[in-house]
Amino acid sequence: MIRRETLLSLEAYARERGAFRTRVMEHKKRRTVRLGEHLTLLFEDELTIRYQVQEMLRIERIFEEDGIQHELDAYNPLVPDGSNWKATMLIEYPDAEERKRMLARLKGVERQVWVQVQGCERVHAIADEDLERENDEKTSSVHFLRFELTDRMRERLRAGAGVTVGVDHPEYRASAELAPEVRSALAADLA
User: Taking a C-beta distance cutoff of 8 angstroms, is the pair 38, 102 a contact?
Assistant: First the structure.
């Protein structure tokens, strides 16, 4: 969890932003999983969420305590707590018309994303706990997912088990074996 006293002031962040951003972008490379051409999962952690909070404070020019606390309250739930992985899921179609058409066809996709630790059962995502991101016409292009892992899964990960991530929606199916550096980064998030 990110605490108020650990955040940089707007002035300090302005001075350090370039180096901090470079560090975070490099860090995100080991936490990003592409599922097919149009779906990306960014597995969040304290550093990625800290960056998001600092950027929101900068963009919105928030410096008052209530505003800062509001951002922390909004983003802290996206930091994994040692028994889970949390991910931002992006559905990406560059063409606006295709995106509109596919978001209508992909309703419910956020509940069809899964992770599977080698030798264990699949764990389906718990999606959008903060607010509903789907309506009668379409799903959103951004969703927030949580994957709860059992003790056995965490033990297997510590022992080096592989991980597969996938999506099984009638309109979109894809899976990917995590690269060793991604698997290691995600395993380090677990208690």
Answer: yes
pLDDT of residue 138: 87
Q: Which residues contact 112 (CB under 8 A, 6 or more apart)?
A: 124, 167, 168, 169
**Do strands 163-169 and 126-127 pair parallel, antiparallel, or not at all (unpaired)?**
unpaired
Whose CA is closest to 129, among 115, 116, 148, 146?
146
- Quick count: other Cβ atoms within 10 Å of Cβ 139? 23
CA count, 13 A, side-chain hemisphere, 17? 15
Pairing of strands 172-177, 163-169: antiparallel
Q: Which residues of 69-85 are buried (b: 16+ CB within 10 A; e: fewer)?
A: eebbeebeebbbeeebb
Mean pLDDT by 10 residues, the chain (191 residues): 93 96 97 97 97 95 91 92 96 95 95 97 88 75 95 94 97 97 94 77
Whole-number Å distance between alpha carbons of 23 and 144: 23
